[in-house]
Amino acid sequence: MSDFQKPHLGLAQRGDMRLRAQLLARVQTVQLLRMGETQIAELIRGIETDPLFQRLLYPTKKEWKVVRFQPHPRTRLSSSFYEVDERTMSADAPADVAGLLEERKGVLELIQRIGREAFEKHFLRAEEALAPEALAETLGLTPADVKRLQDFLLAFSVRAEFFDPSTRSGTDVSLQKHVVRLAHLGVEADGEVRFDLLSPHLARGRYEIQYDRLQALSDGGEMTPEQKRHLKAFVRRLELINWRQNTLFRVVDLLCHHQRSFLGDQDSLKRAPITQRQMSRKLAVAPSTVNRAIQERSLVLPWGEEVLLEELFCSRKDLCVDALEHLESKDQGFSRLADRELLDRLKEIVGVSVPRRTLNTYRRLAAAREDQDGKPESA
After folding, report:
1. pLDDT confidence band for 176 (50 / 70 / 90)
2. Where in the chain are the domains?
3. Of 49, 46, 38, nearest to 159 (Cα)?
4. Which of 18, 47, 196, 332 has the fewest CB atoms within 10 Å around its CB?
5. What percent of the chain has pLDDT over 70?
6. Which of left, alpha, beta for 115 (phi over 0: left; psi -120 to 50: alpha)?
7. CA distances (Å), origin 190, targets 74, 149, 253, 367, 368
8. Rg of the chain, C-alpha, whole Å
9. How sure is the predictor about 327, in pLDDT bands with cuts at 50, 70 and 90?
10. What Å distances lie between residue 163 and 85, 100, 295, CA to CA?
11. 202: Cβ–Cβ under 8 A, 6 or more apart, which residues?
12. What is the dihedral of CA 115, 117, 121, 122, to 10 degrees?
């Protein structure tokens, strides 16, 4: 019986095993979401340097081509990856980051030799079933050059945050919030958001696993029982990483899609109301999953401002209060506006209807905020 086939068990026993597996998976995935990008990159480096992974990614036989990388939609490796230098490096970067900069010089020469398109096709996405020797011959490199490029991508991913440091981390070390930039945003011609990623492991996206080939390998006679068990456990690790990367991207992608009018026009009044709980319902995940996915992560908006992911969420109340403050600053006759007229103008600006009683609550909140903003700072 194949390692990938479920054993024939009684319904109750299978139910208990499934429940235990689900609980274990939930604990593991929660731990993955809590991990920072550097820790995840280290975990991925451990996975991708495993000889088994290398054999599945760069096989000597086509039927062993089980894994390739599948970037998420509208993501790409940022051009900054090819331009990083001492000027972009964080002041508190570890000592080995300087070594990466030195290694980068030789790596860039190799990339220039084969071309950026070929580099991303064969090393970032690993689309073709080519063993390292065959890949080296195809690109006019040596097998040592191929390994050098592979190793650099993994090492750079581990240290990528030090080449694009966040400005949102605290200055007080004892209270410091360690924020990691996920991407620089751009806006496509169709109004959708594009993600420029400096980290190769994020730009690679998820592992695309060919399960039919995986099953054939397990059923075949080339692997020992011990190798088959290792293969099954190894694929489970890939699936957990996929879950983590997919969850993170789905949250960020939906959030940016929801706020695309704001991101396209740089107009805070065009923000759309969405809360973490509403997003959790849309994605069919627990609210705590959304909360963990956004903690201490940021994006750089198309006009260069860096924001925490949590700051892109907003409630209907916040939008209405902001709109009322905007109307008051632009209209000297604001205080004389009738409720009905104000409700119509509020709906025109933020696109939501509110009851008259709620409007009065929002007006008081806007007035209180204005009074607070106008108070001088205490000595």
Report:
1. low
2. 22-254, 316-372
3. 38
4. 332
5. 88
6. left
7. 12, 35, 15, 39, 40
8. 26
9. confident
10. 8, 10, 21
11. 37, 75, 157, 182, 183, 245
12. 0
